[in-house]
Amino acid sequence: MRRQQVYIVMGVSGVGKTTIGKLLAKQFKIPFFDADDFHPLPNVEKMKAGIPLNDDDRHEWLENLEIKIREWQKAGGAVLACSALKEKYRKQLQSLPQEHITWIFLHSEFEVIHGRIANRENHYFKPELLQSQYDALELPSYGIHIDVDQSPDEIMNEIMDKIKSKSEIGLLGLGVMGKSLALNLASKAYKVSVYNRHVEEREVDVAKKFVIENPELTFLGFDDLKAFVESLKRPRNILLMVNAGKVVDFVIDDLFPFLEEGDLIIDGGNSHYKDTIRRERELREKGILFMGAGISGGEEGARKGPSIMPGGPESSYERVGQILEKIAARDKNGNPCCTYVGPDGAGHFVKMVHNGIEYGEMQLIAETYHLLRFHSGVNPEEIAALFENWNREMQSYLLEISVDILRKKENGDLLLDKILDAAKQKGTGGWSTNAALELGVPLDTISAAVMARNISGMKEERIAAARKYIFQSPEKEKTELPRNILFEAFKATAIINHAIGFDLLTAASKEYNWNLNLSEIARTWTNGCIIRSQLMEDLVEKFRDHQGHLLMNEEIVREIKSIREALSAVVGSVLKAGFPMPVMSAAANYLLSFTAEQSSANMIQAQRDYFGAHMYERTDKPRGDFFHTEWSGEQE
């Protein structure tokens, strides 16, 4: 049983707070106190006279009880019987971290309680005051709720059963995402234990403060790892929300001594999929289950419903899938934007590709804004209106937030103009590029977006180069591109960027035998995540009918054919004018290369064979037959 606990038995007068409180105190061998005994004398006189107390009357009383509760907890615990009818009273009494206070709400129908009070003798509370208490009562959404229309023994048995219950899931790491996910879990009626390390002067009582700040939800807060683990139901489910990299390994090492066979660790951060494969294998050998779950949606998504991409043992998903699906966003049909992705590192690979597509989409929007403003001379408000108009068709979250950004002012000036043009990244875009190189898959738009961020960080070099290379071409004069042509180029780039990302998923699925369902992955990305859009909604159906390369889908072929010239025209025009369009240019090049029956690679193969005898295949021989030529010898 929990030590140094204060149990507050609450409810209207007559529910049996004193009777049950004393039985509870006897059970735990801790003292019992009745809050009524701490009322100042004027309050007692008013109640004897049948006059209800007001908030002013209760102020001193609650302050005294708050002090006493702290004293009792330090002394080893206690049971307090207190009406605590309003939430603001309970918040004042909840001065301790929630793991040290258990609320027990006794209740029943008005008629039941009124009958009890009418039968009491020599008590200053009059039956006629009961209705005022019911009127004032604000039902708590937390704590243990017990209907008292039963015997004291039955009430005690029910209370003890509920007190002994432990948290269904533990969340470790209360950063922005961790806090939001914890609130999401608790708001879905899950009992959640939360843990955050304690570092003097840096991270002090983070978990305890979080619990105090959210008294209406069922949390237990810890800065002791052993106590945190012991607060969880067996087999335990622990969701890690810590920074990717070595930190995850350190946390697992710290957790391991307190874990038992069959316990499950879920890594909800942006870990590299190869680390997840390794951790899953290592922990499996020790009897511990491990899942890598990609979670997208940012702070708001984590709180209201993210997109979740869990990978790992399917048996683990069967155990916690219901919890993850409950907190996930919902698609247009009301289904959770969460699905079992595949074994070992599949979940984190899918999240990595999600972020890669996100890089491409963000850069596309950024360079389109930059083109409109500094090449065509369109002011930010007009660009915002244009993006808003485009988004009636695109329904893109990233385009939506870009509209807000273009309208945000600070002291009358556009805030965007005060932001340094040096983009940061957390690494997932670069990981996608590395994975594509390993799998031999082209990743033009995503890689271009990653490199665009890299070169943006070279601010001082760019300033110096701009002064040295003063390109003065007539084409750089402000020229407005036809809006419909630009929009078609924008759409073509978005489609190609998504096609590239999903092609990488296909290659990984084959390489690692993950059997990824592209339609289901697209569906989980239709809400809650950063790259949600109408295009993603369309891809759910397209991948259901066609599992090959997206650019080979008949509907996509027709659409790309109708807008390809716009893409080429915009890229050609802006590059000639001296404006960088890395992602749109990459999309145009990818499309031309993808649709080229004859490429330039035969020259590459000849060069490789010339200097390295790497051999080549011939067009007039069967595929798989390789040849070598002595290129510098006599001609045949």
From TrEMBL:
It holds the Pfam family SKI. Belongs to the 6-phosphogluconate dehydrogenase family. Catalyzes the oxidative decarboxylation of 6-phosphogluconate to ribulose 5-phosphate and CO(2), with concomitant reduction of NADP to NADPH. Residues 347-632 form the 6-phosphogluconate dehydrogenase C-terminal domain. Its EC number is 1.1.1.44. It comes from the Bacteria. This is 6-phosphogluconate dehydrogenase, decarboxylating. PANTHER family: 6-PHOSPHOGLUCONATE DEHYDROGENASE. CDD domains: GntK. GO terms for biological process: D-gluconate metabolic process; pentose-phosphate shunt. GO terms for molecular function: ATP binding; gluconokinase activity; NADP binding; phosphogluconate dehydrogenase (decarboxylating) activity. It catalyses: D-gluconate + ATP = 6-phospho-D-gluconate + ADP + H(+); 6-phospho-D-gluconate + NADP(+) = D-ribulose 5-phosphate + CO2 + NADPH. Homodimer. Pathway: Carbohydrate acid metabolism; Carbohydrate degradation; pentose phosphate pathway; D-ribulose 5-phosphate from D-glucose 6-phosphate (oxidative stage): step 3/3. Keywords: ATP-binding, Gluconate utilization, Kinase, NADP, Nucleotide-binding, Oxidoreductase, Pentose shunt, Transferase.
